[in-house]
Fold SAM-dependent methyltransferase.
Amino acid sequence: MSQEIDPSRPSIARAYDVVLGGKDNYAADRAFADQLRATVPQIDDLAWLNRRLLGRAVRYLAGEAGLDQFLDLGAGLPTMENTHQVAQAQNPDTRVVYVDIDPIVLAHGQALLAENGRTGVITADLRDPTAVLEHPTTRELIDRGRPVAVLLIGLLHHLHDDENPQGIVDAYMDAVPAGSHLAISHFCDVGPEARELQETFLTFLGTGRFRTIEEITGYFRGLELIEPGVVPLPVWRPDGLPPGELTLWDRLMAAGVARKR
Ligand code: SAM
């Protein structure tokens, strides 16, 4: 199952591309980004915080944690520091499967990845773990007998409570062996501005649920959280000095990485 490309309505992948400064978007996506900016002018900074977090998490997973297989769920349009580039810089043999419901990701992703036989892009709905895990590209590239890094970066907040996000996370983690890791970043309910943003997301996009740090931490149930746990994006293993006092937008998303025992 995938979604149609409809230029008259904003899509998550294209709207994210707008706030990251990309060119793969339509007027409806840019108008939606302007709605978000009217609520939180620094929304573009938040998108970049998330993108940099993805880079740090993948560097950790491919480096220190030693993983060489990645399932990037809700991968988004290719931009800077894509998962395969970061992971294969650590270990050129790393295999990566990108999964996205939006066919525009496949169209652009294939062009970027054409030269790389260890990376695949599939159009699939991650709410159907069997379809993702049994897809021929996933089966070809990912050996589920060995640890897998499962990425849900900037994604679970686009699942409504009644779509059983916890059950979906559990289904992926049940399908991979001990030593596998889960990385999540998620919109965080840190007060009235977060709820105002949530309203804008729900009104114009239809998804975008801000959950508390406790709710986000709950997604890692049964797994061993890696230090520093589930924290605002800039606090998760910063590259340089620890961040100073956090701004509001620094705290609008939280992230964590955990290991399956
Ligand atoms: N993971 C990337 C990152 O953090 O930089 C991209 C995040 S982007 C905000 C979320 C992506 O998830 C979009 O490209 C969207 O199309 C995709 N997505 C949303 N719902 C999905 C679903 N049910 N199955 C697969 N992909 C989905």
